[in-house]
Amino acid sequence: MKLNDKKFLYNKETDGGTNSTISSIISNSFAIFTKENPLKSYDIDALKEEIMKIVNVEKNDSTYENANMSADTPAGQMMNMAATTAKEYALRFLLSKEYRDAHQNGDIHIHDLDYYPSKTTTCVQYDLKDIFANGFWTKNGMVREPQTIQSYATLAAIVFQSHQNEQHGGQAIPAFDYFLAPGVLKSFRKNLVKQLEFILKLNNLKSQTNWQALIQTKINTIDLQLNKEAQLEISKLLNLNINQVKIAFEEAYLTTEKETFQAMEGFIHNLNTMHSRGGNQVVFSSINYGTDTSPEGRMVMRQILLATQKGLGKNETPIFPIQIFKVKAGISYSEEDFNLAINNWKQAEKGLLNYKTKNFDLLILACQTNSTRLFPNFVFLDTPFNKHENWNPADPNNYLNEVATMGCRTRTFENVNGYKTPVGRGNISFTTMNLPRLAIEAVKEVKEENLSYDDFLKKVSALFLEKVRTMSILIAKQLKERFDYQKTALLKQFPFMVKNNVWKHHKDISKDEYVGNMINQGSLTIGFIGGHNAMKMIFGKGHGESDAAYDLLYQAVLTMNEIANQYKQKYNLNYSVIATPAEGLSGRFTRMDVKKYGVIPGVNDSNYYVNSFHVDVKQDISIFEKIKKEAPFHAITLGGHISYVELDGAMKYNIPVILKIVKCMFDNNIGYGSINHPVDVCLECQFSGIIPHACDKCQSNNIRRIRRITGYLTGDLNSWNSAKRSEEHDRVKHGINEDK
């Protein structure tokens, strides 16, 4: 098929503009495509039907698979049409038959199949320190090192924007506080020079010395107490009264603080308004912070949290970036500080308490911000599997030794091909198994035998685990096949990534034509969905209700890990297990299983399968019990995981509850957690709170309802696919029963 074939040219005068004409054009195009690329007729019919749905702007689960995409816009339509045809191309011409059949039959789901032909990887954690220090290359030229906090924040957003279309997943900054702190110091120095110049001018004084250079060498912190010696030296050098110099320092600090807030506000606005990703999407962005104890890093964190609280133009909650606060004992958390804050909350929320740990006040601010904006989420660095043997609070580059996560949950930390760090690394690809189907098949096979109930459970459990093992092996092999294909990508396909050394820890590849081993330090992950549904099929109860079901599901995930470790050793690649962040997938498997097996009450009678190892969203369970049940699974899903709790009520009036939940997650070795609660905003009067129907203040029905879909938020439930809307509707609120 030739793209310039006259048969494909659209003539407005002769072809008109009706849907029937468009359908005819598409049919002719597919007819010629079929002749040159023989496919089964029903495949072409299905493909044509999908394209027509996009052309006609129909709302369905295919076009609304990604809630971050504006599917109805021209760019969204183009993206969906490209995705639909790219998936078909990948299935027919790139995948081995075994993996193609497994995907099409609903045994597995190969994620981001539309990007398979392009050989892209999933996600990455940026080393902004390196990118900024050396300047970075873009398509039209090089960007110099930033010199103010405003430039740091702007260029951080531009890095996201410039790189986003070279990968198919999200992007993250692993140490936002550390990376932007130098910008605060640079701005402080500039502002101090301006203040001193102003005072010299007022006093009609001129200095013969190059005192501005002294500022660059002597001023290494914005902390006014630590700058007293420098103040005296400057006072003598410029022949100024010490009080005048102190005022200059104080004004420089206040100006820098204001500029930092504006920089963070601009950063948030940029990441919510730059629709530069394919399909009219904004960048799927995440930032991690929490452990920089320098005054500059603390200012960055305080101001990003305050800017998040302020929201967007009309009090809207920012959807991006996903923010993740690092909770670390001795840095941002201690039992002593927790008790002090809880027992003196009125003083704590006003910032009137002195804490043992330097950043505990920022944890309080993070909880306050979460109460109105749902962010930040929390990652726990003291959980055993998140600890790093080289972590040292005195190390200025300690962020290299701290786990960081993508907002949706992807975790890249352990490394068989280099240093253990998330920085400059990410996921290569992941594939998910249909766990409920394996349970359905196991039960079907064993039911044919006449066994006692105990023998039935014993045999079906063993068969289920064997099926999990077999499916894990199939996925591990499929991931390797895709990995080998990804390695054949040309370096010129990823100019920003390669020129700016974004994907780090690889050997010199400047002379190589292909990507090759550059991506060896990324992760290949085996995912799963529907743990609850699978256990419901076998035991009639989910793992949140039955100890036997819990033990079997845990054993199933251990089995996946066993296979991941085998293939890690076999290929010397970073295989791992991920608790899949299912969005479009949550309904795909269910629909296919209903078609194959019929409706099975309690198993596939909802529009969705429950996420990974999560307790059933409909189960009445306390916050603390849910955390305790899900926490052990975090240790065996090192490719990525998240646990969330659902709260009811306006949490801005009950912030201590959020802090208690964070403590519970910390105590129970949660790796990564989030806290969900309703955040509604009236778009007419900007009233914020819980709005069941019409606004209590102005009676408007124009309400924006912010909810978390997987790891990120969305402000329009209509952009969710039907499965996720059903799942959100079924979510019960978890009670605050600490005694359970």
TrEMBL record:
Q: Name one GO cellular component term.
A: anaerobic ribonucleoside-triphosphate reductase complex
A single GO BP annotation from the record? 2'-deoxyribonucleotide biosynthetic process
**GO: which molecular function terms?**
ribonucleoside-diphosphate reductase activity, thioredoxin disulfide as acceptor; ribonucleoside-triphosphate reductase (thioredoxin) activity
Which superkingdom does the taxonomy of this entry point to?
Bacteria
User: Pfam families from the xrefs?
Assistant: NRDD
Instruction: Enumerate the SUPFAM superfamilies for this protein.
Output: PFL-like glycyl radical enzymes
How is this protein named in the record?
A: Anaerobic ribonucleoside-triphosphate reductase
Q: What is the lineage of its organism?
A: Bacteria, Bacillati, Mycoplasmatota, Mollicutes, Entomoplasmatales
